[in-house]
Amino acid sequence: MRFEECLERGLIKSDPQASRRIESSLEAAGRFLRSAERNLEIEKCEMAEIAAYNSTFHSARSLLFARGYVERSHYCLGIALRSLYGGKIVDLLKTLDKLRLSRHNVVYGGALVGREEAEFVIKFAKEFFDVVKIVLSAAV
Predict the structure, then answer these.
(1) Cβ neighbours around 138 below 10 Å, total
(2) Which end of the chain is more exposed for a tag (fewer CB within 10 A), N or C?
(3) How many CB atoms lie within 10 A of CB 62?
(4) What pTM does this model have?
(5) What pLDDT, in 10s, does the model give residues 60-80?
(6) C-alpha to C-alpha distance for 134 and 138, rounded to whole angstroms
């Protein structure tokens, strides 16, 4: 699917008020990241992965909000970011999409997650969060 198709299907929508949601989305990303770390400490690897993915999702949404859009699809969120951004963000989107699929398999398919995978997802979520904050601060 292309960005234009996501727009046509209403899975990505223009919203002049979207930028007002950046800060709360970043705060949610931070909360989910801390939750992922706490879940890993108590060996709840599936919950750690879900929380880490949610952190990346909220970080990604903040980028979308900064460009005046909102999402109705996790899949189209990645497509939109690929279209709207360049540089380091685009480099990270392939991993983000893999995490989206992995999270889907955990939540809807009951897949299990090992410690190594949970640690990787948390590390990625931290990196993505940091890069997003840099990108957004440069845009101000």
Answers:
(1) 7
(2) C
(3) 25
(4) 0.94
(5) 999 999 999 999 999 999 999
(6) 6
